[in-house]
Design goal:
By secondary structure, the protein is of the alpha+beta class. It has six helices and 13 strands. It has one domain. The protein is globular and about 60 Å long. The N terminus is likely disordered.
């Protein structure tokens, strides 16, 4: 589901997911189209977005997965699990080094506190729901906010679409007749880039864009994002027919409330997706995270021991 992971990677200015569907500049090699498309590029996008929104309503498929996020300050590795109540997450390594015992205890204590505090768990779920809502406001705006044209094809690979399946590349530029209804959609007016779409599955494999001009909010008083900001979000079929976020790259600078500078640069990968029960509670999800963390710790110890013996 396109929003499943973005919920945990918020950008305070616009809500994590608002930006996480937008920007980047990597230009992959692609083949030129040789056949006339059956439908227009714009119509393909409209149908794909409709299907993405419909697929997001299916909450029966849930997963446990890993992430590794690299920033200028270092890296952080986390375990995530989707539950009926909210997303549960546990940091398991910093700069590729396992947490110290007291750090592990702090992670577990925080999760136990959430599991035993219905009010706080409800607040967490409410924040996630707000981020989801902003994400889908952006998604629903995409068909109208941009003009699209076919720009070649690529082939799905691990972590991008469905391995071996053809993907349509669609270049997008701002639609001059589009009027953003709120600040959430306002950022779209300063973006250009491309989409990769699986035309058979009607799913987005990648959205890649760049801010080609400064974007201001509230006449510049609330804040602005600088020209050149980049973001790329990648999605893939994780093996059970469900699509999940597999990569997210961000590079954004700007200011909030005139004075507070923002500078965000990160590269995050998501992998190791494994199906979990569809009726999973938060408390049970926490237990599964603990079990997975312990298993990974044993594997790390065994590998270290093997290297020492060699």
């Amino acid at each position: 589901m396109l929003s499943a992971t973005i919920r945990q990677n918020g950008i305070v200015l616009l809500g994590a997911n608002v930006m996480a569907l937008l920007l980047s500049t990597v230009t992959p090699v692609f083949a030129q189209e040789t056949k006339t498309p059956e439908i227009s590029a714009g119509e393909l996008v409209r149908e794909t977005i409709a299907h993405e929104c419909e697929a997001a309503k299916d909450t029966t498929r849930k997963h446990m997965f890993h992430s590794r996020k690299q920033t200028a300050r270092g890296s952080q590795t986390r375990l995530y699990i989707e539950t009926n109540d909210a997303m549960a997450a546990m940091t398991i390594a910093i700069n590729d080094q396992p947490l110290k015992p007291q750090q592990q205890k702090a992670e577990q204590d925080h999760l136990a506190w959430l599991a035993n505090n219905p009010e706080q768990l409800h607040k967490k779920r409410t924040r996630e729901k707000e981020d989801e809502d902003r994400t889908f406001r952006i998604l629903r705006a995409l068909p109208d906010a941009f003009l699209y044209e076919y720009d070649g094809t690529e082939t799905g690979e691990p972590g991008l679409g469905k391995t071996g399946d053809p993907l349509k590349r669609l270049k997008f530029t701002p639609n001059p007749s589009y009027s953003p209804p709120t600040r959430v959609e306002q950022v779209l007016a300063g973006m250009q880039g491309y989409l990769l779409v699986d035309p058979a599955a009607r799913r987005i494999a990648r959205i890649d864009g760049t801010l080609f001009r400064d974007i201001t909010f509230g006449w510049g008083i609330i804040g602005h994002l600088d020209k050149g900001g980049q973001f790329r979000v990648q999605q893939a079929d994780v093996g059970d027919g469900a699509w999940e976020i597999t990569a997210m790259n961000l590079k954004i600078t700007g200011k909030i409330l005139l004075f507070k500078a923002i500078s965000m640069s990160s590269d995050e990968k998501f992998n190791g997706f494994r199906a979990v029960p569809s009726d999973l509670s938060f408390a049970r999800g926490v237990e599964l995270l603990k079990t997975e963390q312990e298993k990974l710790a044993r594997q790390t110890d065994a590998e270290a021991s093997g290297k020492a013996e060699r």
